[in-house]
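Submission checklist for the structure archive. All mandatory fields must be present; incomplete records are returned to the submitter.

[x] Identifier: ABC transporter permease
[x] Organism: Amycolatopsis silviterrae
[x] Residue count: 272
[x] Sequence attached
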Amino acid sequence: MADNPSISRAAAVRQRSLGWGLRVWVVLVAFVLVAPTLVVIPMSFGAGSTFEFPPKDWSWHWYAEFFTSKQWLAALANSVQVGLLAAALATVLGVAAALALDRMRRGAGIVRQLLMAPMILPGIVVAVAIYGVFLRWQLNGTMLGFVLAHAVLGLPFVLTSVQTSLAGYDPIMEKAAASLGAPRFTTLRKVVLPIIAPGVLSGFVFAFATSFDEVVVALFLQTPAIKTLPVKMYESIVLEIDPTIAAASSLIVVFTTVLLFVPALSRRKEQS
């Protein structure tokens, strides 16, 4: 039985209208997400002694203030150091967990949910739990405490990225390497890791970005001796009106945006 042309046309019109409606919503959501950045970045170039938008005069004053301040540079160095160490630890643990879950027959779903808990639970709940445990272990206010806490927060991102890469992995390749006499470590290094490398890189980048931007847990763990950049930014808003935060925010936005493009560029390079 032939389709009714009027019904087909009505369905096409409805589908077109839904497509346009979806595009409009995407544009609106993107605008809401980007709008604060479009305000903060111009304010960072203001020459005034306080926040003003749009700036009356333009200057690099607050960027110079940021890069000449010992407190801001110390907070930046702490964030970079904690981020790199936490991302490296989260990547090692995440890759091991993903490989183990890929080979588990029972209980894999429960274990995965436990490992994904830091991403699912509210940040304040995770922060209070980490603070309570680290208080007993005397890890509050230490670099090791920051690294361990941020590694826990970055682990779910590594696990998700690596498991996505493992979805297209054929275990027969491991058996073929073993049949040729390759030890387990050699098979992991020369067969498995090159295949899941894009997922590992993506997980590392997201874990680093998570640590670099994290503020809730850092507020619980920070001391006058160790403060990360987000904590310093929070204090500059709550305790004092310091326009240097506009320059710091702009630098973080640009740096994080460039950083998140790294996995996409690496995948495109591999495909080409």
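[x] Structure attached
Curator remark: The mean pLDDT is 81. The radius of gyration is 24 Å.
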